[in-house]
Amino acid sequence: ILRPDPTLAVCLFGFYGAHMHSRGAVRAFWVYLLISVLIDGLWLYQYSALQPFTWQQLQQMTRREQVAVALTAVNIVYKLVVVGIGARLQMLLGAFEASAESEERAISSSSSGAMNSSERTHGPGSLASQDAMNLK
Fold first, then answer.
1. Cis link prior to 52 (omega < 30° from 0)?
2. H/E element holding 98?
3. CB neighbours of 31 closer than 8 A, spacing ≥ 6?
4. Secondary structure of the chain: what % helix, strand, coil (to 5)?
5. pLDDT tens for each residue of 2-17
6. What is the separation of C-alpha 12 from the centre of its chain, rounded to a whole number of angstroms?
7. How many whole angstroms separate alpha carbon 84 and alpha carbon 56?
8. Cβ(68)–Cβ(44) under 8 Å?
């Protein structure tokens, strides 16, 4: 049952990437999680008490060994689901970054010199730029 599992450390990439909207951290998260799935599969196939991989062998294992095999199988399934979600999140963050860049270019080209410093840093519709306009 006791074996090293990097999943907890890998999840830090996911939390950071989702919080900071970092496409690179999200990519690192799902790639490393996929490697973790491969490690779990290798352990299940090679090192678990389930050798050979048959129903009779599963019935002959102790309850503790059965629990270890069952939890590893469940971990593999949920990690594969999260890998799919992570890859999708990476694509969405890429689309978000592209739309933000195009919006930024459109704003800068439409009002190249008419913005005040608050509008350049916060955007023309932000509360900070509206406050700056009210002070004038």
1. yes
2. helix 63-110
3. none
4. 80, 0, 20
5. 677 888 889 888 899 8
6. 9
7. 33
8. no
